[in-house]
Design brief:
501 residues; elongated; 21 strands; Heat Shock Protein 90; alpha+beta; eight-stranded mixed beta sheet; five-stranded mixed beta sheet; 13 helices
Length: 501
């Protein structure tokens, strides 16, 4: 047996059980060692990582003497199994695997230099044995030691690139200084792809937090942090009608009180976006409308939507609010045309004509109960557009039939078990309204090789004789993540399914 594996049997068995409790893979363990340094109060941490070793230095208060002796017991193969088993349990912490992280993957050598204000320790574990252990107490009257810890791990066979990627991703939001191979990776925002976001340091366990309004999506994503490092992500439905992302320093379960506290910042961000609405690009403005309309529909609270000036009138620089539209609509139906359409294409132009998108019109008619009538096109333009629509539909139908026949769907025996599982789960989700096995499928699903700009696309049969075909690119990054997510928790298909509709 290889000497460097003599020690790893018990530890590896425990690490296998604990891997999915805190992180997804062993490439996350350098992150755990950084988190422990932060728990020790470190304000500066340096990580140097290459193919053969990892070195982590910090200026924290040092590893406690009791834990040092647990490490010593664990490293001594001569100790009884029950003593070493207890040491394994004691080296864990309530949120993760603790100092056990330094033992995976099985290192050929571990060096620990540790200083507390009154003690210094040195441990050298090599080739399955504790080669050296020393402890020095501070002499009476002497200057106290400068606290700090240095952990040096010699190992091979680990993905350096993946470890670096994970360190950068997980440690980006830490407010204290972290250097990775000499480059800063901390003190950045955790949540990204937001219309607006802010950082706060109140309400939540006296720790830092971030909240933002996402550019897309209809669910709330909340990261729970430990020392600024994400440990858990929760996905919930819009809370009180608000859609938001958040990252908070919190170790307990989410509560109604906690979520309501977050809404203080979320509501301010909604108001900020509403104030910026007239100057923002059209697509961003549509997203803001979507969020405000959704909030009204889900919560019944019209406070925000009534203050949103989002409805343009023809030949007017002014945007109208919902109360102003209600006043104009008193006793009559409002007239409207689609946005960015030449007035010459319409007849019966009156005094007040709104230029409404489909989203705005749907909200006004179906939720604000304001009657809207779109003006008809002149007969000449109406005939022209009808002819163009028929020609486009004909060519689109022919293209889809040709394309469908050339798609090479992979047979099931060429898919991994996880991909088969995802294919079945997605098919059940898309056809969830089918009452029994005699009901024909509405949509079929199938994987193809390759990647592209989008994770998949829908091919429809214009004859209506065959179900639609959802083509899924198996190498697309989002598809790979979706497959893994559904494998870990089949219920996640409820969140992932809408992405493919």
């Amino acid at each position: 047996m290889n000497p460097e594996n003599l020690f790893s049997i018990d530890v590896d068995a425990h690490l296998e059980k604990l891997t999915h409790h805190t992180y997804r893979s062993r490439s996350h363990y350098p992150v755990e060692l950084v988190r422990l340094a932060l728990l020790r109060g470190a304000t500066q941490i340096s990580v140097n990582l290459n193919d053969s070793r990892v070195e982590i230095r910090d200026n924290g208060t040092g590893i406690k003497d009791t834990l040092i002796h647990e490490l010593k017991s664990l490293m001594q193969a001569s100790h009884a199994d029950d003593i070493r088993e207890q040491a394994i349990l004691n080296l864990q912490n309530s949120e993760g695997i603790g100092l056990l992280a330094m033992f995976s993957p099985s290192p050929s050598r571990i060096i620990i230099e540790n200083s507390t204000p009154d003690q210094e320790h040195y441990l050298d574990f090599q080739e399955g044995k504790l080669r050296k252990f020393s402890k020095h107490n501070s002499r009476p009257g002497a200057e106290p030691s400068v606290p700090g810890t240095r952990i040096l791990l010699y190992r091979k066979g680990q993905s350096r690139e993946l470890e670096i990627k994970i360190l950068k991703e997980y440690c980006r939001g830490v407010v204290r200084s972290i250097l990775l191979n000499g480059q800063p990776i901390s003190q950045q925002t955790i949540i990204r792809n937001q219309l607006a976001w802010l950082r706060f340091d109140h309400y939540i366990n006296e720790g830092m937090g971030e909240v933002g309004i996402p550019k897309q999506g209809d669910v709330c994503k909340i990261w729970l942090l430990s020392q600024g490092i994400p440990l858990t992500r929760k996905i919930i439905a819009p809370w009180r009608g608000f859609v938001f992302d958040a990252a908070i320093e919190y170790s307990d379960d989410l509560t109604t009180e906690l979520l309501d506290r977050l809404l203080t910042e979320v509501r301010d961000l909604y108001k900020h976006l509403m104030a910026k609405y007239p100057q923002l690009p059209a697509l961003t403005g549509q997203r803001i409308e979507e969020l405000i309309f959704k909030h009204h529909r889900l919560s019944g609270d019209s406070t925000l939507v009534e203050k949103l000036a989002a409805f343009p009138a023809l030949n007017s620089p002014r945007l109208l609010t919902l109360p102003q539209l209600r006043k104009l609509a008193a006793g009559s139906r409002l007239l409207a045309i689609p946005p960015d359409t030449p007035v010459s294409e319409y007849q019966d132009i009156g005094k007040t004509i709104l230029q409404l998108s489909q989203q705005q019109a749907d909200y006004l008619v179906n939720h604000a109960n304001i009657p809207i009538r779109f003006l008809p096109l002149t007969s000449q333009h109406s005939r022209m557009r009808s002819w163009i629509s028929r020609v486009m539909a004909k060519w689109k139908s022919k293209y889809r039939r040709i394309t469908r026949g050339k798609i090479k769907i992979l047979p099931l025996d060429q898919l991994s078990e996880r991909e088969k599982n995802f294919d079945m789960a997605l098919s059940r989700y898309l056809n969830r309204n089918a009452s029994d096995f005699n009901t024909p499928l509405i949509q079929e699903t199938g994987f193809i090789n390759g990647w592209g700009r989008v994770p998949g696309w829908l091919l429809t049969d214009e004859t209506g004789l065959e179900p639609s075909l959802l083509v899924i690119r198996r190498k697309h990054a989002l598809v790979r993540k979706a497959v893994e997510s559904v494998f870990r928790n089949p219920d996640n298909i409820e969140y992932i399914g809408p992405l493919f509709q």
